């Protein structure tokens, strides 16, 4: 049993916990909105928190008042205070006030919810992006632009992005905290909503629905840029990659072992991520820093990086490789991938 006089020993622990609550990545915080949708949702969070805080304060004030006002003092007789049971006035008060508080919260919540859907349907100038969630990676298609990519979602700033969300296997959830709340991706159906970025930056996105062994590793990036820079990115994605002579051997190995799943052109879709422009991505498999070492680890034995993913191992030293490749052959493939700029 803990003695009250020993509670001071826990003060450093409580202080450390309070300090750590302020730590984190600004690009993955719903409390620092970087777009109009996130700003609206933060307003709703503040509104609901304010209402809850008001209710808690009022209840505790009444509680403390009753505790002090009706406490039994020394010498007092056992007197029962006046009972208010059946008071129509009080019953009306504590019925009407909660209804008013609920309406204050419900009206803007419903309004903002329908605003997200209506902006998606009625805004013809929005950029349409189809998002498909896979285990455990993200596919992004731009139907009006004729390009597709994976893991890195590139968007222009100050422009509504109309999303169509679906999944290829199990239920996932698309979430970019700095830009807006999550939306589920369900196999066989499509959810729609829109987001918008106000600033040029890189935002982190995650899967917000438990979906398997590597759910926690199902990350992606949202890169927002000015419209002119976005147009240049689209043009570069459509331009065929020039493979240098020293990467030709790796290109041949890639075609023989990887092309069945991975496309390397503007519109290509397959069982695995489209690798067009892969050399310009900052991460490998969405979680590892882009380096030759990370690429070799991923190609050699993907299960050691993302357990449960569908990519087979290729290293001759890995358990149950699909096509055993020597270290030099994997190095040649890496050289080719790093030429896809």
TrEMBL record:
It holds the Pfam family Cytochrom_C. Keywords: Copper, Electron transport, Heme, Iron, Membrane, Metal-binding, Respiratory chain, Translocase, Transmembrane, Transmembrane helix, Transport. GO terms for cellular component: plasma membrane. Its main location: membrane. The keyword Cell wall biogenesis/degradation does not apply. NCBIfam families: CoxB (TIGR02866). Subunits I and II form the functional core of the enzyme complex. Electrons originating in cytochrome c are transferred via heme a and Cu(A) to the binuclear center formed by heme a3 and Cu(B). InterPro entries: CcO_II, CcO_II-like_C, Copper_CuA, Cupredoxin, CuRO_CcO_Caa3_II, Cyt_c-like_dom, Cyt_c-like_dom_sf, Cyt_c_oxidase_su2. It is an enzyme of class 7 (translocase). Its EC number is 7.1.1.9. The keyword Amino-acid biosynthesis does not apply. It is found in: Cell membrane; Membrane. Belongs to the cytochrome c oxidase subunit 2 family. One of its GO terms (biological process) is ATP synthesis coupled electron transport. This is Cytochrome c oxidase subunit 2. Binds a copper A center. Its cofactor is Cu cation. It catalyses: 4 Fe(II)-[cytochrome c] + O2 + 8 H(+)(in) = 4 Fe(III)-[cytochrome c] + 2 H2O + 4 H(+)(out). It is a multi-pass membrane protein. GO terms for molecular function: copper ion binding; cytochrome-c oxidase activity; heme binding; oxidoreductase activity. PROSITE patterns: COX2, COX2_CUA, COX2_TM, CYTC, PROKAR_LIPOPROTEIN.
């Amino acid at each position: 049993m803990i003695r009250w006089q020993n509670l001071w020993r826990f003060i450093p622990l409580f202080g450390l916990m309070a300090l750590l609550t302020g730590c984190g990545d600004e690009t993955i915080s719903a409390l620092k909105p970087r777009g109009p949708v996130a700003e609206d949702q933060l307003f709703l969070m503040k509104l609901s928190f304010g209402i809850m805080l008001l209710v808690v304060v009022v209840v505790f004030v009444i509680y403390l008042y009753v505790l002090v006002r009706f406490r039994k003092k020394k010498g007092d007789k056992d007197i029962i205070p006046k009972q208010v049971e059946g008071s129509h006035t009080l019953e009306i008060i504590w019925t009407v006030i909660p209804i008013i508080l609920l309406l204050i919260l419900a009206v803007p919540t419903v309004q903002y919810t329908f605003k997200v859907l209506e902006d998606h349907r009625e805004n013809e100038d929005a950029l349409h992006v189809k998002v498909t969630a896979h285990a455990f990676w993200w596919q992004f298609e731009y139907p009006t632009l004729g390009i597709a990519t994976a893991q890195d979602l590139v968007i222009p700033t100050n422009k509504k992005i109309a999303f169509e969300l679906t999944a290829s296997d199990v239920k996932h959830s698309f979430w970019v905290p700095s830009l807006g709340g999550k939306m589920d991706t369900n196999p066989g159906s499509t959810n729609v909503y829109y987001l918008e970025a106000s600033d040029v930056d890189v935002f982190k996105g995650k899967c917000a629905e438990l979906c398997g062994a590597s759910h926690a590793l199902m990350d992606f990036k949202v890169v927002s840029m000015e419209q002119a820079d976005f147009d240049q990115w689209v043009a570069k994605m459509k331009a065929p990659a020039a493979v240098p002579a020293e990467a030709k051997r790796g290109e041949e190995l890639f075609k023989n072992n990887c092309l069945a799943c991975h496309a390397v052109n503007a519109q290509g879709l397959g069982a695995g991520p489209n690798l067009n422009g892969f050399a310009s991505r900052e991460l490998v498999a969405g979680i590892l820093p882009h380096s030759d070492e990370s690429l070799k680890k991923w190609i050699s034995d993907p299960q050691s990086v993302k357990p449960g993913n569908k990519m087979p191992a290729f290293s001759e030293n890995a358990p149950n490789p699909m096509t055993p490749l020597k270290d030099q052959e994997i190095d040649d493939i890496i050289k080719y991938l790093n030429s896809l700029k």
